[in-house]
Structures are given as structure tokens and as C-alpha cells.
Fold:
Amino acid sequence: MTPAIEVRDLVKRFDAVEAVRGISFTVARGSTCALLGGNGAGKTTTLSMLLGVLLPTSGSISVLGEDIERHRYRVLGRMNFTSPYVDLPKKLTVEENLRMFARLYGVGDMKGRIAALAAELDLADILKRAYGALSAGMRTRVSVAKALLNEPELLLLDEPTASLDPDVGDRVRTQLMVYQKRTGATLLLASHNMPEVERMCDTVLMLRAGRIVDSGAPAELIARYGRSTMEEVFLDVARRPERTVERGPDEVRLERE
Amino acid sequence: MSSPAALSLRRIYAMVLRHLYLFRKSWVRVIEMAYWPTMQMVLWGFIAQFLATNSSWVAQVPGLLVSALLLWEVLFRGQLGVALSFFEELYARNLGHLFVSPLRPLELVAAMIAVSFFRTAIGVGTAIVLALVLYHYSIFDLGVPLVTFFANLLVCGWAVGLMVAALVMRYGLAAENFAWGAIFIAAPISGIYYPVSVLPDWLQAVAWCLPTSHVFEGMRAVLLEKTFLWREFWTAVGLNALYMSAGIALFLGAFNGARRRGMLLQIGE
Structure:
């Protein structure tokens, strides 16, 4: 079976700035992989290229066995995305938002699917409320519901639990893991939340200045760096001095993260 | 490449529905659609009534200015409807979700056009009823040619609306004021309230490049001479085909440019 994601020599240049510098990786189907890195490491740029909303300068991306550039619309219906930085229409109710996206994704039993997600994500009481009137935690749950509407084979998550309190964050993580176990979907997340990465991910890709500087299972990385948590590994990688001189001040300023 | 022509009515309907949800719960938005056409109608209607007793040219046909005004509103509302439908997505910071869904840019264009039609019908429809009540003038007296005038002006408005949306996709919301002003560039030279022949020769040459000039000349011919000018009609159709193609090409070009620059997830912020 082809990998869920196969990236070869991917480069993204914004004028003089190389935000992603020739990265290659694969993500196995049914696995959970994290893109880890500090601000400006290239995580969101990479996610955007995987979604086809950002054109690479060079390199190739295959998603669910399809070339994302050549067959973008064929594959977009089989994947989904959520990010706290992209909103849903605030004046529409939660139900209206979910109905709109259910139609866009061609969800068959729209009513049934929305009811099921409302039950799973505890949204039943807020279905008739305007999205804009919800708290950050509720909005995130609605966003996750939108991302699960089409039962995606590949789910891209940009900081899925950012700005959530620990309880809501935990519930969202649990829900995503339950969904993955039930459907065998592949999850790729960009996150700054190290405990989340440790708990959810099979593989971690450590990004820095647009390059993959290390990769492996969380336990492997922790052992390799002689640390006790991913947070310590992250700090080791982030503070490695020899790498920081590679980028000038303009590059730091212009990074897309 | 995935075929951009493989459009889905279901996805277009989803996007139309998104705006209908909005209108259904916001009477302010619906009233706003009718407000300006109504104000224009009241103002110009009374001016026309006054001129009818003081100008032999206007007095020939009492509905001349009112017809011109209503048709101008079709053009303006058509353009505004497309641009504002796009802006709604920017204000909501929703474009990122839309463009990672299977929604094709051409489907979004089709939905914006459908919503524009709806908005124009509400806005201009209210003004038409008001013209009937206040001045006992029915624009439907223009007969079948009215349909051709409406259609040509709507298409022209949509083309300009798409160009404005493309401009905003390229330069961000700083360019949104073009939505309110862009079409007025055409107003003085479209021969809305006076014949194109009153313009200087060089400006007439520019005016005849606009579909709007041919529509308003056609309107005057129907009202003053009871003649439908097929030549004006077909010229307007041809020019509209060009303008609409340019509008769609610019919108798709701006979309691809935004993909290159990584703006699709960020536009509106």
C-alpha cells in the first residue's frame, strides 16, 4: 500500500527566503505523525503545501497515492483540515456551518453524520447557536467536527488544541484518537504541545529552519537525546548553536510561521 | 490536472445556501440591499417629475430617467453582489476552509453570481415596486427588451465584481473600497441619463467599448422610438463575453497567485 503522504525534495522559496529547504519524508497509512519545530521552522508552510493551497517551488508531494498538484480536487474530498487560525462563518449557527461543509464534501447522510458528530463531540446543545458566540474551546470542537464530517482518510491538524484548557484539550485529543482507531485514518499534526505529541504520535519529524533535522518515535528521540520528555528534546534541537547562523535576520522576519 | 470544468451543482448550492442562511437571520442585510436603490429611486423620480414639466426632451417619455436609474441599479447591484459575497468569506476568515475543501474556484464564482442575482432581485425589485407606487411608472412597460437589458447589465456587473474580487485577493482588504467605486468609472460615459453623442468624440470611442453604453442606447431607442436595436444588443453581448472572460481569468489568476504566495490560508487577517 502506498504511504498516506510521500514528500520528495520539497522546497518553498518566498523571494529570497527559503522557508522549506528540500525536505523528504513519508507518513505511513493509519499512523499519527507530528511536525515539530519552533516558530519559523516551516511546519505551516509544509502543511499548506500538503493541502495544495500553497504551490511548492520544487519537489513532489503525493497524498493518498495521488499527486497533489495534478489531482488536487480528487484527493481533497478524502482529506480534511483544522486550524485555530482559520475560522468558520461567525453569523451562521454551528448546524448551518456543518451543513454547508457537509454539502461541499458530498457527505451522504448529512443529518445522521452531523447528529453522530454532535453526540461524539458534545455539540448537541450548541448546534443552534451562532458559531461566533461560542467560546474558544467550543469553536475548536466545532472545527474538529467540520474536519471529521467526510470521515477523512487523512486529517491535517494545525495546533489542534491551541488555546484550549487542559480538560477540553484532552477531550479533543481523545476524540481524534478514537476516530483514528475506528477508521484507520492517518493524522499529521503540527504542534507545540509536547505532551500531546508524546501521547498521540507514532513518529515525529523535527523541523528547524525549513529542514528536517531529526525524526523517529517519541520514545526513540527521548532515548537518543538522553532526556526524559519530548519537551527537553525539542529544546535541545531548538538551541543547537551551529544551526542558528544559517539564517539571516531577514529570513527570520519573513518566515511564514 | 484535475479538470476545472468538472463543476458540481451540489457544491455551488452549498455556497449559495451559506449566504441564504445569513440573509434569513439578518433583516438588516436584506434592508440594506433595498435601501440605496430605494433612495436613488425617490430622489431621481422627483427630479424626473420636475424635469418632465421643464424639458421637452425628458417630457417625451416620463419614464426615461426612472428606467435609466433602475437599469443602472441592476448593473451596480450585480457588481456589488459578487464582490460582497466574496468579502463575506474574507471577513469570516473562511477562505482557508473553503479552498482545502473540494470546492473549485469556478464553483465559488458560480455561487457568487447566484447570490448576486438574489441580492439584485431584492434591491432592484423593491425600487421597481416603489416606482410603480410613487410615479405610476412600470419598467415592465419596456416589454421583452427589458429582459435583454437586465441580462446584459447583470453580466457586466458580475464581470466587474469578479475583477474587484481578484484585486482584493491580490492586494487584500485594503482594496475593498473598489467594490463601492469601481463601477462609477463607467457611469459618466455609459450614456445612462443622456445619449453617448453628447460626449466629446474621443470619449465616445471609449464609451462604445463598454457594454453599458450599448444597453442604455438601446433603452432610449425602445422608449423614444419604439425600436429595438439588435445591433446594440449583439454588440453588448459580444463585449460582455469579453468582459466576463476577463473577469473570470483575473479571478483565477489571482487565486493561483495567492497559492504561489501562500495567502489562501491568511487572506482576511
